[in-house]
């Protein structure tokens, strides 16, 4: 089994925050792959299903960001899921908006949700870092990530979340580079009259 963990803060007042882009990503995975509705377990909302022939559990912690690791460790311990089968989707201020990077292990880079998971299960889990941009000064970060995306951000955010959900099967089959390439192609701004790379065309 794989755990797909989306990071965010529970409640409607946080729903549109940059800090909640991890929740947005896993919610779209649930929709795109026709997984069942969330149920409350492990101090989280969870949904189970199969993606690319692999059993997955979506985990949406309800413990607030700073204590996300508690929900993740409860689910991982119950199902005996090792850290290298945990994939965490979260906001990354050190990446430009509309960028996604995948890595395994490493530090928390000041992200409290990642720090909490590190403390509970170790750091050898896979991280899907979703770029939200940096406000320009470290003193502005707290307000920035706990503020809603601007309306203009939706032009890149919605296609990005769609692309992540479409391509997520590559992450459970070890094709991390393919995942990043597909997301980049699907979200690349197109020049006028440029064909969509996803369109195969039809011979006539």
Q: What composes the largest sheet?
A: 7 strands, mixed
Average pLDDT: 90
Order of helices and strands: EHEEEHEEHEHHHH
Assigned CATH class: Alpha Beta
Secondary-structure blueprint:
Layout: E1 2-6, H1 21-32, E2 39-41, E3 44-51, E4 54-61, H2 68-79, E5 86-92, E6 100-104, H3 112-121, E7 126-131, H4 141-145, H5 154-167, H6 169-172, H7 176-187
Parallel strand pairs: 1-4, 1-5, 5-7
Antiparallel strand pairs: 2-3, 3-4, 6-7
Summary tags:
204 residues; alpha/beta; Rossmann fold; 7 helices
How is this structure best described in words?
The chain is an alpha/beta fold. It has one domain: 3-Layer(aba) Sandwich (Rossmann fold), CATH 3.40.50.1470. The protein is built from 7 helices and 7 strands. The protein has a 7-stranded mixed β-sheet, with helices on both faces. Strand 2 (39-41) and strand 3 form a beta hairpin. Helix 1 (21-32) packs across helix 5 (154-167), helix 2 packs parallel to helix 3 (112-121) and helix 5 packs antiparallel against helix 7. It is globular, with a radius of gyration of 17 Å.
């Amino acid at each position: 089994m794989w755990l797909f963990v989306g990071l965010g803060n529970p409640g409607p007042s946080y729903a549109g925050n940059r800090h909640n882009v991890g929740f947005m990503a896993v919610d779209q995975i649930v929709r795109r792959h026709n997984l069942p509705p969330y149920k409350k377990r492990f101090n989280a909302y969870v949904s189970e299903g199969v993606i690319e022939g692999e059993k997955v559990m979506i985990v949406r912690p309800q413990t607030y960001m700073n204590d996300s690791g508690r929900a993740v460790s409860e689910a991982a311990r119950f199902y005996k899921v090792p850290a290298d089968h945990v994939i965490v989707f979260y906001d990354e201020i050190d990446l430009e908006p509309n960028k996604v990077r995948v890595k395994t292990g490493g530090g928390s880079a000041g992200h409290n949700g990642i720090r909490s998971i590190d403390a509970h299960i170790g750091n050898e889990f896979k991280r899907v870092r979703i770029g939200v941009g940096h406000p320009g000064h470290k003193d502005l970060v707290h307000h920035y990530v706990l503020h809603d995306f601007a309306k203009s951000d939706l032009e890149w955010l919605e296609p990005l979340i769609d692309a992540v959900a479409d391509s997520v099967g590559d992450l459970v089959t070890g094709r991390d580079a393919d995942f990043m390439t597909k997301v980049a192609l699907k979200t690349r701004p197109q020049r006028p009259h440029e064909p969509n790379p996803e369109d195969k065309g039809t011979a006539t």
